[in-house]
Write a structure and sequence with these properties.
With about 280 residues, the chain is an alpha/beta fold. It has 11 helices and 7 strands. The strands form 2 sheets. Strands 1-2-3-7-6 form a 5-stranded parallel beta sheet, sandwiched between helices. Strands 4-5 form a two-stranded antiparallel ribbon.
Length: about 280
C-alpha cells in the first residue's frame, strides 16, 4: 500500500515533470503543452508508482510491461517521463521537435529507448497493444500492456473495433486509460462529436471500468491495482482531467492544444506550477 509520504513524493515528481515540459516547449516555442499537462499524474503513477514493470537500462527486456502513447501529441510529457525514468539523458529534450533532435513532435519507434510504437495518427494504440498481448501469449510471457488514449481520439472508429477485439480475446492484461479532459484541438469534445454515454459504451463492449480523478495519484494507483485483479476482460480507467492542468491561463483556453506558452508568460506559468 502506498503511504502518504510516497504520494507526496509522486506529487513532487509530477510538478517537476510539468516544469520539464515547460522548459522544453518554451525553448523551441512548439509542442502540445495542455495535452501533456492533463496526463502528468497518469504517467507519474504508471512509471514511478510501482505499476509499470521496466528496466530503463534494458529497454528491450522481453518481460517488460509495455506502455503505448496512443495520443501521440502528448509527446513532451512522455519524453520527460522517459528521461526521468533513466531511459536517456534529459538533454535530449532541449531540441524538442527540431530537425536534428530524436525527440520528435510525435513519438517514433527506434528514435529513443522506451518508445514501443510510433504514434500521432490517432486511434491505433489499443490495436497495437492487443498485438503485443497476443504475442506475449504465444511466447509464454505475462507482461501487461497500458495504453493512454485521448477522449477526442475516441471518436475514431478504430478505437471501438479494437475495443471489441480486445474484449473478444479476453485480454485481461491490457489496461486503457482515457485522459478525459473534455477538449480536443478544435473545441469541446461534446460539441465536435459527443461520445457520451462514454462509460456505458466501454461496459457494453465488455470492459471493466474504473472512474477516477485523473489528477489524484492515490486514486490512480488504486484503480491500477483493481484492474490487475480483473480476469477474463480488459480494463479501462476513465481519468477525469483538466486540459492544461497547473497553469490557470492554459486551463482556461483550449487553443493551447497545439502551441507553447509564450516567453513573456513563462515566469507566471513557472510560479503557478511551483505553488501547485
Amino acid at each position: 500500500m502506498t503511504n502518504n509520504a510516497d504520494i507526496q513524493a509522486l506529487k513532487d515528481k509530477a510538478r517537476s515533470l510539468r516544469l520539464d515540459v515547460l522548459d522544453a516547449t518554451t525553448k523551441v516555442q512548439s509542442g502540445h503543452v495542455s495535452s501533456s499537462y492533463s496526463s502528468v499524474e497518469i504517467l507519474t503513477a504508471l512509471y514511478f508508482g510501482g505499476v509499470l514493470r521496466y528496466r530503463s537500462d534494458q529497454p528491450d527486456w522481453p518481460a517488460r510491461d509495455r506502455f503505448f502513447l496512443s495520443k501521440g501529441h502528448a509527446a513532451p510529457i512522455f519524453y520527460a517521463v522517459l528521461a526521468e525514468a533513466g531511459y536517456f539523458d534529459k538533454a535530449e529534450l532541449d531540441g524538442l521537435r527540431t530537425i536534428d533532435c530524436k525527440a520528435e513532435g510525435h513519438p517514433v519507434q527506434g528514435t529513443l529507448p522506451g518508445i514501443e510504437t510510433t504514434s500521432g495518427s490517432l486511434g491505433k494504440g489499443i490495436s497495437v497493444a492487443l498485438g503485443h498481448v497476443l504475442a506475449g501469449r504465444l511466447s509464454g510471457l505475462d507482461y501487461r500492456c497500458y495504453v493512454l488514449l485521448g477522449d477526442g481520439e475516441c471518436q475514431e472508429g478504430q478505437i471501438w473495433e479494437a475495443a471489441m477485439s480486445t474484449s473478444h480475446w479476453q485480454a485481461d492484461n491490457l489496461v486503457a486509460i482515457v485522459d478525459y479532459n473534455k477538449y480536443q484541438e478544435s473545441g469541446p469534445v461534446s460539441r465536435e462529436m459527443g461520445i457520451e454515454p462514454f462509460t456505458d459504451k466501454w461496459q457494453a463492449f465488455g470492459w471493466h471500468v474504473e472512474v477516477v480523478d485523473g489528477h489524484d495519484i492515490a486514486q490512480l494507483l488504486d484503480a491500477f491495482e483493481k484492474c490487475e485483479q480483473v480476469k477474463g476482460k480488459p480494463s479501462v480507467i476513465m481519468a477525469h482531467t483538466i486540459k492544461g492542468k497547473g497553469v490557470s491561463f492554459v486551463e482556461a483556453d483550449y487553443t493551447y492544444h497545439g502551441k507553447a506558452i509564450k516567453p513573456d508568460l513563462t515566469e507566471q506559468a513557472r510560479e503557478e506550477l511551483l505553488c501547485s
